[in-house]
Structures are given as C-alpha cells and as structure tokens.
C-alpha cells in the first residue's frame, strides 16, 4: 500500500492545488504549467521504471517458489509428530510468535490450532502489477475446522490523483468451524431482573472475542459518501483498523514467509519491536492498543 497516509488523503479528498493556483499571477501560473510538463516527463520515466522493477520482482518470485516448495517438503517429513510440520513441530507458530505484531494477536486458544499449520504462501494476483495480493495458510486435518486452507486477499488499485495502489477492501475465507470449536466467539450468560415483577432470568449471548483467526474477515473500505457521514474520531479509528489489518498481511508476505527460518530461530530483525520500545521511552497514554486489531471496521461499511 506504500505510504499508509495515502488512505487519509483518499478520505479527505481536498484539492490543495486549486487553492495555491488561485494565489498566483498569470506569469507564475505559466511557469507552473511548464514545471508540470517537466514533471510529467519524469513521471513517465518513473512508470517505466516501475514496470521493469515489477517484471524483475515477478521473475524472482517465480524462482523463489521451488525453494519454498522444498522447505514445505522438509518440514512435513514425518518425524515423531503426524500433523502440521512434523520435522519441526509448531514451526510456523513459533516463527509468527517471534514477531511482536503477530504475537500480540495470537491468543492461547489459537496456539493448538496453529500447530496444525503446515505451510504458507503469498502471491500477487497480477505479478506484473505487484498490487493486489493473497495470503494462504495451509492446514493439516484438525479437530477445529474443516478447511484445508484459509486465504486473505488484499484488493489494491491506483485511483485518480495517486501514484501508489490503495487498499479497496479484503476478501477472506469463511472458516467452517466444527461445533463448539470457534475460538473467535464465546457464550456469555447474564442474569437479568424484571423491573416490575423482580423476577430473574438468565440470558445467554454469543460475543466476539480476540483471536488470530479474526484476521480472516472480509471488509470493504467505505465510500466517500459513507466517510462524509463519519466523525473525525471514527475516521481515525477506521484508519487504525485498516492499517493494522494491512500490516499483518505485509508482515506475513514480506517477512514470515520468505524468512521463516530466521523468525523460527528468533534471529530476524523485529522492526516493530524497536518501534514499540521507542514509544515506551516516550511514554504511552493509549492503553489497550494491542487489542485494536481485534476490532473490526465493518461498523463503518457502506451498509451503515
């Protein structure tokens, strides 16, 4: 997605250029026009550079795949355990937990399930564009859900006035949980008392709870019309949810999958952990931020 602030620019939809041009003289506007023409020449070269760079990346992504296939073959070689990654049990779980961002969303109830994770894959939907991409997690047969794999797809596109692809929404696999195995929900019983009769009754409700598997939720970034009805606080919260969800995908795509052995051994450089330490040094008044990913931005969808 490039600079996450692109998302804010999309939300605000403010044309600063028009305001500046209104303050210039006729001769100054003529100079601006010449500079814009020069900039277009540079932008055309940059587009050519991006196309060639994407082609090079696509070439090496194809070359990496046999390496990843061999890694999966080694990890799934029977050796004591009979599920997940028998050669190194809980390989992917350990690798993910050594990343501070992923560790913050993996709950205790998630860990037995993630032990059945046997491989991960990341791929661009159109390799030569390097925009929309998909993350796939492959699972052995397990007592929690029937899916053989779970996917999360990030739909990206370049909109008018932008040079980088922006997140438009995500598509995720619906997890087919076996009865009483859904770790993303919990049943809560509450005792209620009638105001008049004083009679008591027990009401049972199903609530969402924190879980890594809430990552597999489809969402759409609201339209400008929906955004216009939101408060600044709601927009700020929405931006946070979108960025955190996107960051998870990028960490899996660019860190965990290509450098899994480094993360398993705990020797990979955790840039997110360094950022957290910087925040701690400055003082953190926002408690509970680690749980922010567990919330959803579906409340701000076009249906609202």
TrEMBL record:
Composition bias of kind Low complexity appears in 293-304
Q: Look up the record and report any one GO term of the cellular component aspect.
A: nucleus
Query: Where is the region Disordered?
Result: 272-304
Record InterPro entries: NAP-like_sf, NAP_family
Taxonomically, the superkingdom here is Eukaryota
The entry sums up its family as follows:
Belongs to the nucleosome assembly protein (NAP) family.
Identify the species of origin. Answer: Babesia microti (strain RI)
- Show the ranges annotated as biased composition (Acidic residues): 272-292
The GO annotation for biological process reads:
nucleosome assembly
User: Pfam families attached here?
Assistant: NAP
Q: What is this protein called?
A: Nucleosome assembly protein 1-like 1
């Amino acid at each position: 997605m490039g600079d996450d602030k692109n998302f804010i620019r999309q939300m605000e939809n403010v044309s600063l250029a028009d305001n500046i041009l209104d303050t210039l003289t006729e001769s100054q506007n003529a100079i601006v026009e010449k500079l814009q023409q020069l900039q277009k020449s540079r932008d055309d070269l940059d587009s050519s550079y991006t196309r060639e760079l994407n082609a090079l990346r696509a070439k090496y992504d194809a070359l990496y795949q046999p390496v990843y296939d061999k890694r999966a073959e080694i990890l799934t070689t029977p050796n004591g355990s009979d599920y997940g990654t028998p050669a190194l049990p809980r390989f992917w779980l350990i690798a993910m937990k050594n990343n501070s961002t992923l560790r913050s969303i993996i709950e205790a109830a998630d860990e037995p399930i993630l032990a059945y994770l046997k491989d991960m894959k990341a791929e661009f939907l159109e390799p030569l564009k390097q925009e929309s991409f998909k993350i796939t997690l492959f699972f052995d047969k397990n007592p929690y859900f029937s899916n053989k794999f779970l996917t999360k797809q990030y739909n990206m596109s370049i909109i008018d006035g932008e040079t980088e692809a922006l997140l438009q929404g995500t598509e995720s696999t619906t997890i087919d949980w076996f009865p009483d195995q859904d770790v993303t929900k919990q049943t809560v019983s509450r005792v209620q008392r009638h105001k008049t009769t004083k009679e008591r009754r027990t009401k049972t409700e199903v609530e969402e709870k924190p879980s890594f598997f809430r990552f597999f939720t489809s969402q759409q970034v609201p339209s400008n019309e929906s955004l216009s009805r939101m408060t600044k606080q709601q927009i700020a919260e929405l931006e946070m949810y979108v960025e955190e969800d996107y960051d998870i995908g990028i960490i899996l795509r660019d860190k965990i999958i290509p450098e899994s052995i480094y993360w398993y051994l705990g020797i990979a450089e955790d840039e997110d952990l360094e950022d957290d330490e910087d925040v701690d040094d400055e003082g953190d008044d926002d408690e509970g931020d680690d749980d922010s990913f567990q919330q959803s931005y579906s409340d701000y969808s076009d249906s609202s």
